[in-house]
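Quick one - inputs below.
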Amino acid sequence: MAYSEKVIDHAEKPRNVGTLDKNDPNVGTGLVGAPACGDVMRLQIRVNDEGVIEDAKFKTFGCGSAIASSSLATEWIKGKSIEEAEAIKNVDIVNELNLPPVKIHCSVLAEDAIKSAIQDYRAKQAARRAEAAVADLPREERPTVP
Amino acid sequence: MAIKLPIFMDNHSTTPVDQRVLDTMIPYFTEKFGNAASRSHQFGWVAEEAVDYARERIARLIGASSEKEIVFTSGATESDNLAIKGVAEYYRDKGNHIITTVTEHKAVLDTCKRLEKQGCEVTYLPVDRHGLVDPDDVRRAITDKTILVSVMLANNEIGTVQPLEAIGKVTREKGVLLHSDAVQGIGKIDFDVQKMNVDLASITAHKMYGPKGIGALYVRRSKPRVRLVAQMDGGGHERGSRSGTLNVPLIVGFGKAAEIAQLEGREESGRILRLRERLRTKIQDALDETYVNGSLEHRLPGNLNVSFNFVEGEAMMMAIKDVAVSSGSACTSSSLEPSYVLRALGVGDELAHSSIRFGIGRLNTEEEIDYVADLVIAKVQHLREMSPLYEMHKEGIDLKTVEWTAH
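Output:
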């Protein structure tokens, strides 16, 4: 199969490969796919207090198109608000990378990875707010930790 | 010596035509262009003589007792079809049961599947984790309805060499015909239809440095005499077994390739085996979590099929794009299913996705092996740095316990 130039470019020079601290409350981690299916993407975002994604990193086990899709995804979401990042659709990735039909699932996986990272970030933030809310309560009203 | 790129290391898919083969073929396109079936003039006689010479070379290479046992076809796919369908049709009154194995080439498996739709019963024998068929399994599978056993000489993906001689003892004892798709092994490892009691054998020229588009089916003519129903109707060429004008230049090339294989095959296999082992040990010494698929002991000399855990096969092929290899990864097939051969060995899907097949051949050099080994090692390390699975593995996470979101 011949790859598009953009796929080759991203696969050979992937952007934003790496790892963010998954325990950082401002970091959301999305891990999607399965080794048995031949592709696993991990996409991480660090969100600042204004709700803007200030950093994004990925690691991908998968074919060239999967690597390119996740590389492109990190490039696109950096500097975007969470809402803007959430609006990215897999067809945008298909169009940008000229993915053939047999590789569309790579773009779906990249979209899932973005959404999954955002979901993780939101869950962490909600947990933190809940903790903060509990901390504001008078001591006797705080729920006891089992 | 400078390395010339790209490097071809996919000699199971095809091989380049040997220059000596091509030189022998050339006159048969232009000056000696006659139809080998023309009995009435010199052009025909010259062509027929060349065909007979080639037929004899091929017969000799596989230990056939007569050149009349060689039927020319368009290639091994056609030979497999002719052997299995032709036998099934001819011996229909004797029985309808065929035995084959799960790791056969699609030309055998899909032929068997079609025959199943037409009323045949087919037993697909399993293989062990090395890819080997147990001759006792063959024995146990034979019934009074069995007419044919089809087991390949050597596997195209993992290079596993089947115990054909032992299987041939069983089939001969039971009075059942034995067919072998011998494509990958001919000229590389010992193959003798007499010694192995093989009754039908499919071979092709382009896997042994001959031209594409020409193959042959060996059909035993005595003890026992094997009969077939032709699958191509027409002028009754090849003693009625396969109609169609003989492709004289390709046949001449096939014959020359067989002659070279007979003269040089043994020595060449020794050299290629040393190259294969050089590549394997370099890679395995440098990289952890790297597994050879298939038996190391019973293996084609030029075959190395390796799974690089945590690295996907197609990404790997892209990373070493100046080296032509192939992969059992789903991403390289249109079906999105990983290799059925690796699956039959019990290799997990994740390792099947990570497999790369190196096929070392006549033209590969030691310099190329060293270049490829270094490149593979560097690229696997690079891709592992990008792999979330490798990171998790390094953190001590058992990937089998992770709940993946299968898609």
